[in-house]
Amino acid sequence: MQGMAGEFRYVLCSHKLTAPTCQAFTMLKRKKRLAEAGRRKMQKIDAQDLWRKLGPAYFRELSTFGAIQDAVLLNMLLSCRVLQLNSGEVLYSLGDRTGFFYIVLQGSINNFIPGQDGTMVLSRHHEPGDDLGFVHMISLSDRTATAIAEEDAVILEISIEQFFMLHEQEPDAFGLILLNLARGMARTILRMADKLVELDKNCT
Asked: How many of the other CB atoms lie within 10 Å of CB of 193?
């Protein structure tokens, strides 16, 4: 496990940034310093209380947890961290190293990427059941976006080690979650393809 987790944690840092991206990155670093106070406000909340409050049926309806047994879901909540973000809080920033991915349990979070003119462009809106950061983790890459809570939100934070432990201890559940995550990635790719076709039509 340690070897695999260590391999996951290894991240290449040889990115070549264009001038506009460098400007955006500099702007983000300034924003990141200003947002550190907000990041520190991120609260760990009691997973058992959340489970009782929302009920097992709520979690079963979340896309990432489809077909997962209640006992496995509860154990994931208890063994990982459940975090509360206030509206406007930064979850992670462009260039951050990857050690976790997240599942939105309540609320919504937006991903922003640097545009060519140095402004930040909304790249994806995440609602309950969506994952954040899984692609970065599985591809061993730094964060390519900044995630900011659009409204008060609750997320499940899953570390690389915890994800591997799920594979070891609950292989069937691990397979289902991996399938659900892959399905979410496939839908995102299809939406991106539709956007490219739309852009191409607008340019002709």
From this structure: 10
Topology adopted by domain 2-203: Jelly Rolls (2.60.120)
Three-class DSSP labels, the chain = CHHHHHHHHCCCCCCCCCHHHHHHHHHHHHHHHHHHHHHHCCEECCHHHHHHHHCHHHHHCCHHHCCCCHHHHHHHHHHCEEEEECCCCEEECCCCCCCEEEEEEECCEEEEEECCCCCEEEEEEECCCCEECHHHHHCCCCCCCEEEECCCEEEEEEEHHHHHHHHHHCHHHHHHHHHHHHHHHHHHHHHHHHHHHHHHHHHC
Locate 38 and state its tokens: 């907000």
In sequence order, what are the residues at sequence separation of 6 or more whose Cβ sits closer than 8 angstroms to the Cβ of residue 106?
54, 128, 152, 153, 154
Domain locations in the chain as residue ranges: 2-203
CA dist list (Å): 111 to 17, 53, 88:
19, 28, 12
Q: Is the pTM of this model over 0.85?
A: no
- Give the pLDDT of residue 47: 98
The arithmetic mean of pLDDT across residues 95-105, rounded, is 95
- Render pLDDT for 64-74 as a digit per residue (tens, 0 to 9): 999 999 999 99
